[in-house]
Amino acid sequence: MEQELLKVFDEQHQKIGVGTREEIHRLGLWHETFQCWFIGSHEGKQYVYLQLRSNLKKDYPGLLDITAAGHLLESETVFDGIREVKEELGIDILFEELYSLGVIKYSVTTDDLIDNELAHVFLYDCALDWEQFTLQVEEVSGVVRVEITQFVSLWQSEIEEIEIIGFEVEEDGTRRPIHQMVDKESFVPHEQSYYEVICEEMISFTSKNQLSS
């Protein structure tokens, strides 16, 4: 995976070359990703769905993250990003069903990488049962949902913890229910400004639309 070829861009989103994933993260080069946030209604409440990253992942194992996301390869366009949803979650959706939030730029630097992303971000309004998810366990170990109002309040620093409900797949393949409180430390450390934009867009979308339930 580290040797996958990705397109390299400047900050104005102009393609300037190609590099391996390892090289791009080591040097902090700008590259494209696909991100899809699932939202929906359950028993009259509006939720956002999160993936629990597998403990086998090199980056951010065991943390909560965007419902489905991944890098766009050198040979791919944003339309090909839909494969991430099928691969990670086992859910078939059409690109035309997605609501685009445009391209969001953000940067995260850790001891292991410099991640400068040009993220094509989408919302997907869904009505799904837990049984419909078939996880790519080497990538995703579980799926949970949280009320959108709680999610927004967390990232606006109005509350310190939120309630998540969902499931996790054990090593033997059995599903274990998840119902617990988590804080910001349980999430992949995307920039605060990124989470703020996502929260604003979710609020705007849900206020204008009746979510699927």
How would you characterize the overall build of this protein?
With 213 residues, the chain is of the alpha+beta class. The longest helix is centred in the C-terminal third of the chain and has 17 residues. Helices cover 18% and strands 40% of the residues. The termini are far apart. Strand 10 and strand 11 form a beta hairpin. The model has no long low-confidence stretch (mean pLDDT 95). The strands form 2 sheets. Strands 3, 4, 5, 6, 7, 8, 9, 10 and 11 form a 9-stranded mixed β-sheet that branches. A two-stranded antiparallel sheet has the order 1-2.
Count of beta strands: 11
* Order of SSEs: EEHEEEEHEEEHEEH
**First CA to last CA: what distance?**
37 Å
Proportion of strand residues: 35-45%
Largest sheet report: 9 strands, mixed
Structural class label = alpha+beta
Query: For the CA atoms, what is the radius of gyration?
Result: 17 Å
**Tally of helical segments:** 4
In brief:
With 213 residues, this protein is α+β, with helices and mostly antiparallel strands.
